[in-house]
Amino acid sequence: MYTDKNWVGINPFAFITGLEVTCEVVEAAVTRITVRINRRRSLLIFTFWVACGYIAARGMPEPAGAIFLIGLTIAAWFGVVSFLGSYLVRKEIDVELRS
C-alpha cells in the first residue's frame, strides 16, 4: 500500500483492477503510448465510502446530513477514483517511461 515513488506515499496500483498499455509507432522517431486503466476496484471503494457516509448521514439532522453526504461523495470521487485510480497511475508510468 505504500511507496516512495510519488509525493503522496500511497501505491496507486492497489486501487485499480487492470492496466493495458499499448505502444504504436506514429512516425520514424515518435511512439504513441496509450494507457487504459480498469478502475473497477476504485469504484467499489468509492461505493463503500458513499454507503458508509449514507449510514452516518442518516443519524444527523436533515441539512447537515445531506451536506455531509454530498461532501463525502465528492471527496471520495476525486480522492479515490480520479486521483488514486487514474492520475497517480498515469503519472508513475510517465515518470518511468521518461527515465
Question: How does this structure look, described?
Answer:
The protein is 57% helix and 16% strand. The chain has one domain (12-98). It has helices at residues 40-58, 62-98; strands at 18-25, 31-38. Helix 1 packs antiparallel against helix 2 (62-98). It is α+β, with helices and mostly antiparallel strands. The chain is built from two helices and two strands, in the order ββαα.
What is the element string, with H for helices and E for strands? EEHH
Strand content is 15-25%
Overall geometry: elongated
Average pLDDT, rounded to a whole number, is 90
Brief overview, please?
With 99 residues, the chain is an alpha+beta fold. The chain has helices at residues 40-58, 62-98; strands spanning 18-25, 31-38. The protein has a two-stranded antiparallel ribbon.
Keywords:
57% helix; two-stranded antiparallel ribbon; single chain; alpha+beta; 99 residues
Topology (SSEs and partners):
Elements: E1 18-25, E2 31-38, H1 40-58, H2 62-98
Antiparallel strand pairs: 1-2
